[in-house]
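User: I'm writing a tutorial on reading structure tokens. Could you give me a worked example: one chain, its sequence, then its tokens, then a sentence or two explaining what the tokens reveal?
Assistant: Sure. Here is the example chain.
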Amino acid sequence: MRCCYRNYVPASRVGEMVEEIELPLHKAKVLTLSRAITRAVIGDPTVMDVEQDPDQLTKIILRPQAVGLTNVFFLDDNGDIIRQIEVRVVFDNQGIKSALKKLLPDENINVTAFRNSVFLSGKVSSPVVVSNAISIASQFVAEAANVVNMMTVAAGQQVVLQVRVAEMDRNVRKNLAV
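And here are its predicted structure tokens:
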């Protein structure tokens, strides 16, 4: 079932209880409603798509399409609201965390998603690990620019200097016209 793109739902029909759901991008969720619906109204269809199981009319499948916020109203034959949900679609934090843990097991990297960005924080052992962590996280977001590096390298960077010491007689130094 595709949604009906209406922007109007009478305020008197909106129930007091609004359910909030957070879904990872590209991971569907099945909802079971109290009764069959005839219509679903989606606030922003670019963020969320809704399908109804044709064999079980009380089963609804939520399919996130893009990171963002939207709301969904499920209506019955009379136009009464059966259920109203606020949906926040976020990047797949758990997928990023497990990939980082598997590929960089000795590192302590935290993953936080906010709006369209993923923030990586924590102390890592080297700049190479920072680069690798950003590359891994970039696979889970729309653009690499959406990965924000807040990691610090535990050991400060070392600079190697080569120093030469020369010994010179004082009289020779005075005779040099520098």
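What the tokens reveal: The radius of gyration is 29 Å. The CA atoms of residues 11 and 81 lie 11 Å apart.
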